[in-house]
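This part of the workshop introduces the protein records we will be handling. The structure tokens are whole numbers drawn from a learned vocabulary of backbone shapes. The record below serves as our worked example for the rest of this section.

===
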Amino acid sequence: MRLAVATGTKARVEGMTAPVAGWGADLLLLPRQPGEEPSDGPTARALGDLAAAAGLAVAWTFVERADGVPYLALQVAAADGTALAHYRAAHPDPGLAPGSWLTVVPFDPHRPGLLLARDPLDPETARALALAGAASLLALEAPPLDGDLLDALVRVRAYENGLPCLAWTTGGRVVAATGEGRPVPLERLDDGLLGVLLPPGPGLARERRAELFQILAREPEPRRG
């Protein structure tokens, strides 16, 4: 999968769609959009129009306000501008409500599994996505860990699931690894625009016996004595 990672304002991003499309990107990742909105708010409509005009799938994060409750959310618009996927962080930062589902984007053949905020710190989240059919892992607004620790985390999440993984931290750093756990180089496409080529992975998680680990989902028994 060819990913383009952009930073800057929406106006600047609009100017980036030509080099992104010229590079042959499958998906453009945008930074968090300002304000709080519903999932079908003005930002979703504007970025859907942007995706349709560029003929390019686009993903972005934002604070979603639903029934008075704030969530950290990630939304994906298809290349025709229609809504493709929606996810709320399962492990958000304090002050935001946790989501209640996991999302594998129906974007064949890449099928990215979505992670947000502190999700990648919990191996069960990535494993659940792998077992649900994800072919890659995208972690946006990941914690800004120290350089070596972030590199190790991304490589381990990729290797243990056999899936390529990309993490983009709140500090602006981008790290990627193959499904074999090898670092993936970044390509500078333009000012504030990186290109990342994630090759397919072996998908080792599908060979694991997930039924043996159901204890992780159980409520702990109360301690006696």
Q: What stands out?
A: The two ends are 54 Å apart (CA to CA). The mean pLDDT is 90. The CA atoms of residues 45 and 81 lie 8 Å apart.
